[in-house]
Hints:
- The protein is mostly helical.
- It has one domain (16-247).
- It is 72% helix and 0% strand.
- It is built from ten helices and no strands.
- Helix 1 packs parallel to helix 6 (156-175) and helix 6 runs antiparallel to helix 7.
- The longest helix is centred in the first third of the chain and has 32 residues, at 14-45.
- The chain is globular.
Amino acid sequence: MATTAPAAPPAAGPGNSKRAERRFFSTYMIALAVAVLIGFAPSFFLRGLVEPYAPLRPLRPIVVLHGVITTTWLLLFPVQARLIATNRWALHRLLGNYGFVLGAGMMTTAYLLAVHLYHEPAPPPITPAMNVVLPLCDFLTLCILMPLAWRWRKNGPKHKRIMTVIACLLAGAAIFRLPFGDHSTLSGLVYVHMALFATLLPLWAWDFRTLGKLHSATAIASAVVFVDMFARLPLAPTPAWSGFVTLLPGFGAP
């Protein structure tokens, strides 16, 4: 009786590896976008429709503007990945330019949001300086990562990693709002920030799987985010941080 040999698995090659990479980064960004949706659902996306995780602040225009710009920027990433997959390079570059305009808008509105939070009363024992530590530190981090993404925009491996780390930073801001961990103690905040930093682990795993080490862009961007997340915790309650904040344009005395 004749037998049929089982079909051989497709050979690994440049085409397959590129498709796998596109799938990984597209799926990664979609997962981060979902995290943003879940984290900001009660206060922004589904406000009034779902139970809030904490008492809601008024939905000021600057909050709406920052949310719309940031969401648009996040949704642009999987679209860009699809354009690369279909070899539509001209449209990819055009949207990329608009993406950096959105990035500049995201940075600007993050700073203005920090100014707004500084002057808006916060429940004790949160001081005005502590009230702005997350958006202001994330703004300073974006001031480093966005120029790097622009500088490496023609270097695909570096560019996509920097953009992914920026998305992780944004997802971290959303995850911070989820009701887990004790936000009233330093140890509790360290635990929460470890969860935020863990959003980078899939990128690290991909680098080790495909390169055997961290890509240089992943290492640089991860280091910047690490300093952002873990330096701000002991720094925020100090007089030095309060003094630094009051010197920034738009802040001054609360």
